[in-house]
Amino acid sequence: MSRRRPLARPLLLVVASLAAAGGLVLESGQRIAPLRRSPTESLLVDGPSTVGDGPSPSVGLLDLPKVEAWATSIALPERHLKTLYRVLLRPNNNEHSISGGGLFERLLSNDFPKKAAASLLLHNDLCKFAESTSTVVEASKSQRGYKLAIQFDREGGPVVETVLIRHAEDATTKTIDDEERSDELQPTKRKRRKPQPQHYTVCVSCQVGCARACTFCETGTMGLLGNLSSGQILEQVWHAERYLRQQSPDGAAVAGKVRNIVFMGMGEALDAYDSVHEACRGLTHQCLFGLKAKQITISTVGASPRMIKRLADDVPGVSLALSLHGGTQKLREELIPSGRGVKGSHLDELADALDYHAKRTGRGVMIEYLLIQDVNDGAEAADALGEFCIERQQKQRTNASGRGGRHASVTYVNLIPYNPTSAGDRFGYQTPSNERIAAFSSRLRERYGVRTLVRWSSADGRDATGACGQLAVASQRRTDETS
């Protein structure tokens, strides 16, 4: 069997120059602009540490910048490229392939010009791309969803983990999860709305491993092996949608629809900024995944306040989640070692970045706070967190008043009970009791008026080691760990 000939490096370099000089760009209704690139910058990789680098890496159809550059090089109009995506990548087209029979007829049936279709197939241009450069090598079912292990490029290539979190709603329209499990912890009252069918949140990875080495997080035990490209991030969502269709007897999407994307898997999102930015453009594009920007959440440990401000400027419609875990600089440094003595990571500068983000986007930030027994779950820690949130609320009210707005954006806190990891075991970390969690949540609400939600559901993936903080690929774990 003949192997598919990979896209040559010289062609991509030429194509990159064409795109940077004003080539085809698929416009998104969400107004997420493509990254600005210099005319000489190669689109072959997203950065020096992108996984899959080599003399002839595979290129996937979901790698939007490279596909746009290719379309520019062959003078393919934007409307024709959109048709290609509809034919090959939209739901219920999973049986279609680039090399499979009937592509010519499928293109014509979708109003693709006959001459252009014949040219594509005659010159075999589409075979420079793969529908997917990755494969699901393992799938685990948990109480609330699935965990997929996805391998890129080839056998023996890098592996990341992607989590599918199932949400179900009852007839009273209140979500069946989180604080309902405890009588002491009642969620904020919500407006009644029509019940919706079962749906999923996909938790994607943006790096293989992570350099931040948070003391409670399993991913940090791998070290950083590389950034994923934007296409590799999007392929995780593609696999998730495909996997859910496969769970239905008739192949329909009755198993659940992907409705939200969170960058809370392996890796620090702002350390892979270019890839994450381009992935957001693909997620929101009508011809790819068609999500709204508000359905996407980018999580960060806040190591770079400067990148938080850039995020607010580039993708203001996307939600921001900050993994704070401590209301004082000292406590944050204890849990997030990458914050120690790094310029621009002091808590005051981080607070300034959050205030800028709220002012620029008109939206509040979600604070993620992992509760660890006798570390950050006491009254003093709750007071520090409350003060931090109150300061943000006051700044946001001032900003809203200054721009004539009627409402200030709201900062709220997700409290996440610690999920056991080997990383946390080294420090003796344990999950607090329900009583301590209840006391912490009540103190924030009653003393400081902070909106809180205890994410009991974050523990539902423990049976598949897919809960918050537990993602890691053992075979790729670094070997230089010290106990």
Tell me the β content: 5-15%
E-strand count: 12
Instruction: Output mean pLDDT.
Output: 79
Any idea what the radius of gyration is? 23 Å
Order of helices and strands: HHHHHEEEEEEHEHEHEHHEHEHHE
Number of helices: 13
Q: Give helix % range.
A: 25-40%
Order of the strands making up the biggest sheet:
1-2-3-4-7-8-9-10-11-12
What is the CA-CA span between the terminal residues?
Answer: 49 Å
Shape: globular
How would you characterize the largest beta sheet?
10 strands, mixed
Category by helix and strand content: alpha/beta
Low-confidence stretches: 1-21, 38-49, 53-57, 170-190
What does the model show?
It contains 13 helices and 12 strands. The radius of gyration is 23 Å and the shape is globular. With 483 residues, the protein is of the alpha/beta class. The strands form 2 sheets. Strands 1-2-3-4-7-8-9-10-11-12 form a 10-stranded mixed sheet, with helices on one face. The chain has helices at residues 9-20, 64-73, 78-89, 103-109, 114-123, 230-246, 273-284, 305-314, 329-335, 347-361, 379-402, 422-425, 434-448, and strands spanning 134-142, 145-152, 159-167, 199-203, 207-209, 224-227, 257-263, 296-300, 319-323, 366-371, 412-417, 451-454. Helices cover 32% and strands 15% of the residues. Strand 7 (257-263), helix 7 (273-284) and strand 8 form a beta-alpha-beta unit. Helix 10 packs parallel to helix 11 (379-402).
Give the topology:
Layout: H1 9-20, H2 64-73, H3 78-89, H4 103-109, H5 114-123, E1 134-142, E2 145-152, E3 159-167, E4 199-203, E5 207-209, E6 224-227, H6 230-246, E7 257-263, H7 273-284, E8 296-300, H8 305-314, E9 319-323, H9 329-335, H10 347-361, E10 366-371, H11 379-402, E11 412-417, H12 422-425, H13 434-448, E12 451-454
Parallel strand pairs: 4-7, 7-8, 8-9, 9-10, 10-11, 11-12
Antiparallel strand pairs: 1-2, 2-3, 3-4, 5-6
